[in-house]
Amino acid sequence: MSGNEGRLDPTPAPTLSDWLAHLENLHPKGQAGIELGLDRVLRVKAALAPHAAGTVITVGGTNGKGSTCAYLEAIYTFAGFRVGCYASPHLLAYNERVRIDRAPVGDTALCDAFATVEAARRAAGDVPLTYFEFGTLAALEVFRAERLDVLILEVGLGGRLDAVNAYDADCTVVTGVALDHMDWLGATREEIGYEKAGIFRSGKPAVCADPEPPQALLAHARAIGADLHLLGVDFGYFGDDRQWVFWSRGGLRRGGLAKPALRGAGQLRNAAAALAVVEILRQTLPVAMQAIRRGLIELELPGRFQVLPGRPTVILDVAHNPEAVGGLADSLAGMAFFPRTFAVVGMLADKDIAGSLAPLLDKIDVWLLADLAGPRGATADALAGILASAAAVSRMETFASPRQAFERSLKLAGENDRIVVFGSFHTVAAVLRKPNNSH
């Protein structure tokens, strides 16, 4: 045998980075591009094998989706079930989006799933999937290869036309409805609520944790015959910072619950939404009280009012719309006294920047404003202009990146001060990527 006869193809298999670059270039709008609609993803899904068996829980809502998914993921894992969780976006590594039993899956599993989806995409006629659509199909391929009991799927944007909605859920959650992504979902809570309610299924339980749900959401649930469970009507909670009580239909109460591990003003509501799901599905997925207790306190979710160790106090929060920043402001107000508060902020240009900064205007002493890279990123100068027009007289400085802004904050802040980093997943990620977060 001479030459290359009998040898393996020397071309290396695509790496995860190669695949992600492919995903970014596949659709005309790239990674940042958003094109809602189920036609593309359904065409490719039809060319794939059926997704994994198991109970499917789909979680949507403007804020609190990631936290609610994390509570469910932890509770069911501690209860002894095999759990797959698909969430987005990621902070540091794409693998964070696809987890099995609370651990990010490896590159090999993702690459294999991407290859399977790519073959199906081509077989379906070279469908131009978006980055998120391709990733959603690949996540379900990863889960299909495992023997999973529970699949927790986080909606990317909206609900009705989101790629996740290509999969029928056994139980759905809308954590809340607020104004965000208005270019795609509508200008009012009613319009946005209708889009969120699109994940509900006829005859299936649907949890809504919004204290004032839009009428459009309620009407859609009635129209399709969903079994709607409303906060304050069918389930709820009360208590204080030390312990709290969850209640639900039929007089059930679970008392003496510890404060959830995730900090922030809205976390009891997110935890209650998760417990509502656990109670609804208890016949199919029985969960002991010990698993609930562990699930509430033994979890981490970076960037949700995350307080870094050391001094000065550094708080990381991915809040990027008015409601979420309002919750951040409430959480900051509940902390101990700090002489000065520094804000490191970078935001996307398509967000309601003025509305998002408003809740903190009287709480920040120094604003350190950063450019965000990419086509959707707002400039620091744009943020400064909005603050100036809001008559915010606090000191402002501008920087070319969140990292530079954060480094400056560490130089300015005394050990008794605090630094709050917020505005985008990209902003928080820039701080978390620092090789050594000691300060």
Description:
This protein is of the alpha/beta class and 439 residues long. The chain has two domains: 16-297, UDP-N-acetylmuramoyl-L-alanine:D-glutamate ligase (3-Layer(aba) Sandwich), CATH 3.40.1190.10; 306-432, Mur ligase, C-terminal domain (Protein-Tyrosine Phosphatase, Chain A, Alpha-Beta Complex), CATH 3.90.190.20. It contains 15 helices and 17 strands. The chain has helices at residues 16-26, 39-46, 65-78, 107-123, 131-144, 182-185, 189-197, 215-224, 267-280, 289-297, 322-333, 353-357, 380-389, 402-412, 425-432; strands spanning 55-60, 83-86, 98-100, 103-104, 150-154, 171-174, 205-208, 227-230, 235-239, 243-248, 252-258, 306-308, 313-316, 341-345, 366-370, 395-399, 418-422. The strands form three sheets. An eight-stranded mixed sheet has the order 4-3-2-5-1-6-7-8, sandwiched between helices.
The name of the CATH architecture of the largest domain is: 3-Layer(aba) Sandwich
Mean pLDDT: 90
% residues in beta strands: 15-25%
Identify the strand order in the major beta sheet.
Answer: 4-3-2-5-1-6-7-8
Characterize the largest beta sheet: strand count, sense, and whether it forms a barrel.
8 strands, mixed
Shape: globular
- Compute the separation of the termini in Å: 63 Å
Q: How many domain units? A: 2
- The Cα radius of gyration reads 22 Å
CATH superfamily of the largest domain: Mur-like, catalytic domain
Low-confidence stretches are 1-9
Based on secondary structure, the structural category is: alpha/beta
| Residue share in helix | 25-40%
- Using the coordinates shown, work out and report the CATH topology of the largest domain: UDP-N-acetylmuramoyl-L-alanine:D-glutamate ligase
What count of helical segments does DSSP give? Answer: 15
How many distinct beta strands? 17
CATH class term of the largest domain:
Alpha Beta
